[in-house]
Design brief:
12 helices, about 500 residues, Jelly Rolls, Spore Coat Polysaccharide Biosynthesis Protein SpsA, Chain A, 6-stranded antiparallel sheet, alpha/beta, 5-stranded mixed β-barrel, 3 domains
Amino acid sequence: MFERDAMSLLPVILSGGSGTRLWPLSREAYPKQFLPLAGEHTMLQATALRLDHLTDEYPRLGLHLQDPLVVCNEAHRFLVAEQFRLLERGCASILLEPVGRNTAPALTLAALTATASDVDPVLLVMPADHTIADAPGFRAVVADGFLLADAGAVITFGIVPTKPETGYGYIRQGEPYPHAALGGKAFRLHAFVEKPALATAEGYLASGEYLWNSGIFMLRASVWLALIQRFRGDILEACAAALAAGSRDGDFQRIDAERFADCPSDSIDYAVMERLSDDAPQAIPHLPPALVLPLSVGWSDVGAWSALWEVREQDAAGNVLEGDAFVHDAANNLVLAQHRMVAAVGVNDCIIVETPDAVLVADKDRAQDVKAVTQFLKDAQRSEHRHHQRVHRPWGAFELIDAGARYQVKRLTVSSGESLSLQMHHHRAEHWIVVSGTARVTCDDKRFLLAENQSTYIPVGATHRLENPGKVTLEIIEVQSGGYLGEDDIVRFDDVYNRDASEGC
């Protein structure tokens, strides 16, 4: 039996999305939750900051707000850690999914981790890639939800719709749920409804009974574990086995890949929530109350470029401009320029996104079809769906400047105190030129320093390492030459980040 972690709230941030519908800004290796799309902070950071001041604003709860627990793709682990480091915030844990298995297994891993010390906090489950304009309003509803979840209820948050949206699932709210402290703000969860046709969505909006499904939930960890055991015991068994066979790696909790690969894939909605609704096919005794709390806080899942246009500040003509962008006789456009000047003349309702290696031009009403581009790139075995031209690594980043048949040129930036792995290449030699900062170089049995404007040569087959021992960022120009220049030509001997060869330099 778990001890109730009295008045303790653990935020669980689900950061497994790939954000492919926001290509080319969002890529598989650097998806939308790590981008500052709607403010100065990235979407992940904004999610973590959203609960700030909750304990001060609602002292009556006597609430202890824990550091968040994050569930993410293993490939994104250093991005998550770096984003929290920049906030000067800690994480309760960062759970690494070796493969994606949807939200029900992710929450199960989180609940098992939360109760590992025989405590039972209330979990607030939030996707990492949503925007909420009214954070104080969100915290007010979270405070109401905490009172209900602390008493054993299962809470889902429904977004009060502002238009007949066909891209979201809906929740139908039932009768008001009596609670002395809430005054009729909670409702029974009547039913989940799939994405509707336009006419049906218009009817939902007119009725006032339907809310958008936000994917935000609140319940005690023990309640989730009891429900997933009851309805999808196979998921609980696989997650428990994968977590038990995993290992701690610095800030990260690794999940055993082989056992987690055997876990069925399912969403929180399908695995549990739909079975708790009043509209479930058959009544099941002894279930906790399933409730919905309406949210009207400027929410968006930023699921497509048109959604980003809606949440960004617009000029008098309805244009959203970022970077070196110019419009003339144009209205209701989203124009983002990252690398060069972009001009739009005499066009309306367009999405124009420019990055160093790709440009997207789309009709705003066809924004959902961007996935056709990413599918083409995958089928053609190109890299633009996965990586930006600037590729992030735990030690810094590299950027491709030029490439030819037997050479390529990169710009490397190595953060202060960081180090590339000790490695060797079978097929390429490398020339390193220091542009700024100080480099410590290992090349076979030699170890030496290079200052600005100095250079060195790394022969094919030499064991080598690049480090930044200084306090400023090290910038290197690397010229690679050889018959094969792929990132997978690497033999790694030692790495302070515990990566394998598949993760590149």
